Amino acid sequence: MYAIVDIETTGGHASANGITEIAIYIYDGRNIVQQYETLINPGVPIPRYIQSLTGITDEMVANAPAFDEVAGDIFALLHDKIFVAHNVNFDYSFIQYHLAQAGYQLRTKKLCTVRLGRKIIPGLPSYSLGNLCKSLEISVTQRHRAAGDAAATVKLFGLLLQQDTGKAIAHALSTHSKEQFLPPNLPPEQVTALPGTPGVYYFHDQKGKVVYVGKAKNIRKRVNSHFTGNSAGRKRQEFLRNIYSISHEVTGTELMAHILESVEIKRLWPVYNYSQKYIEFKYGFYCFEDQEGYLRLVIEKRRKYSAPLHSFPLLVQGHQMLRGLIREFDLCPRLCFLQKGQGACSPIPDHTCRGACEKKETSETYNLRVKAAIIHMQQQQPTFAIIGMGRDAQEQSCILMEKGRFYGMGYIPRDTAITEGPQCKEWLTQYPENEYILNLIHQHAGAHDQELLKFS
């Protein structure tokens, strides 16, 4: 038995909006055997544009029952039926949420006539209720009222039952089918075609623009997890409505998927990705020559498009490294901006400035030690590759770190022996780095020493 449902609401998501009208037709596949409809007082003013769309005004619902007053009747009609609606997840999320607020837990199978229409009667210009009914010559009265739209959905569903030669409805209701949870505009074959391998997936909107990027150890399983449940929040409902297609890129390892996801979020700036957009190194080492010709090492906040000698997330890390360079190469603390004010600098532990800050040491002599310190700092950063599984048996994956910086990643023929870092590069794609990526790589390297190729 089917419960064909339509509701009118004060807005687009259940957690902050109310229901103003509900219609439920109990349908046995041939006839309507029971009908229920009522206006509902949502407890909040109905926005003017909603009043214009539906014709339901605040005055009309002023004496109507609140939802919790009719929740028991609604639950009794729905709890043992198959819930059918046009864009079913919208109606279901509202009714499930408000029933839960009234103390009832609704868990039923669902069918979406948008999705079934696309599958059973493909090739139509639009699958909105109004346009679909127009294409199929189904009469609609009282458009955008619950009873009128529910009655049209009954006729539509009856037609879909008759034309379902491919058993799409039975498949959607099967215990193994995830189709009833999918967004209404997403072709199910795109989901079933996804691989069960590591990689990155992309959700696209109606115009093909990427609106979300995700990474996965198993792409198919992770994508399906986005569509389970019936969260009533505005962001989730809007997110699901805007997914029209999925693309993906397979990676050899889960680590590569994490890295590629971070790169792609930065590159594409998808509207529904909220994390990682602003992950950056906060500080860097810079070197410049002052008016007297002395090279000056300085720690500054990273500037956009700048190229620091070395980057780090915490200021204390930079100070520790700079003090080490000062001690080892007899650099001037004042010229390195670790001491402020005018005049000579104060001694530091183990060494004393050779007088560059007082011009007792020439810039040429002092600068040689600054350059040596920079070379030393860069040489101290490790160069290594992480070698892992490829996308198939003929290749192996490679992630290259060069002098502490992320160079890039790619795939190398499995029978190729790698003995030095530059040898890898012809197979690799260069990518920008960020703090998140470097932390991922260093954590993985620390825990998987057997995967490392270390280069001198």
TrEMBL record:
Domain named GIY-YIG: residues = 196-274
Enzyme's top EC category: transferase
Q: Which Pfam families match?
A: GIY-YIG, RNase_T
A single GO molecular function term of this UniProt record: DNA-directed DNA polymerase activity
Alphabetically list the UniProt keywords: Nucleotidyltransferase, Transferase
Q: Which GO terms describe its biological process?
A: DNA replication proofreading; nucleotide-excision repair
- Which InterPro entries does UniProt cross-reference here? DnaQ, GIY-YIG_endonuc, GIY-YIG_endonuc_sf, GIY-YIG_UvrC_Cho, Ribonucl_H, RNaseH-like_sf, RNaseH_sf
SUPFAM superfamilies reported in the protein's UniProt record: GIY-YIG endonuclease, Ribonuclease H-like
Membrane spanning stretches = none
| Enzyme nomenclature, EC number | 2.7.7.7
- Example of a GO cellular component annotation carried by this entry: cytosol
What task does this protein carry out?
Answer: DNA polymerase III is a complex, multichain enzyme responsible for most of the replicative synthesis in bacteria. The epsilon subunit contain the editing function and is a proofreading 3'-5' exonuclease.
Q: How does it assemble?
A: DNA polymerase III contains a core (composed of alpha, epsilon and theta chains) that associates with a tau subunit. This core dimerizes to form the POLIII' complex. PolIII' associates with the gamma complex (composed of gamma, delta, delta', psi and chi chains) and with the beta chain to form the complete DNA polymerase III complex.
Name of the protein: DNA polymerase III, epsilon subunit
Q: Which organism is this protein's natural source?
A: Chitinophaga pinensis (strain ATCC 43595 / DSM 2588 / LMG 13176 / NBRC 15968 / NCIMB 11800 / UQM 2034)
